[in-house]
Each structure stands twice: as C-alpha cells, then as structure tokens.
Amino acid sequence: MIKVKTFTQTLKIFETMNELKDLDERVGNFIKQNNIKKVITISDTTTSSEGGATMGIIRVMAYEE
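RE: above sequence
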C-alpha cells in the first residue's frame, strides 16, 4: 500500500541550513522508526509571505510499508 507523509518546517533568516538539516533528520528518523522499506519520492516546496519572502518548507514523501 502506498502512503504519503507530510513534514513542515518554518524557515528563519540566517537559520535555514540548520533547519534543513533538522528536517532531513526528522524524515530519516520517520523512515527508520516506521521500518519504511521503499521510498517512492520525496519533494519539497516552499511557502511564502504576502511580500514574497520564503517563510517555510513542505516536504512530502510517498512510500510503501
């Protein structure tokens, strides 16, 4: 059965590299803790403020258990 999991992360100026590392670790931990055998796809998209500044990231992972 194919499932989808969504992760979100707020991005703050000058903290982006650390926040992306934390997001990568959260995804990796989810894969490990749930014994995911096959990741089909992972994709990222950003969210922005009304002024156009990037303020967050959404990572979507499709996988099979």
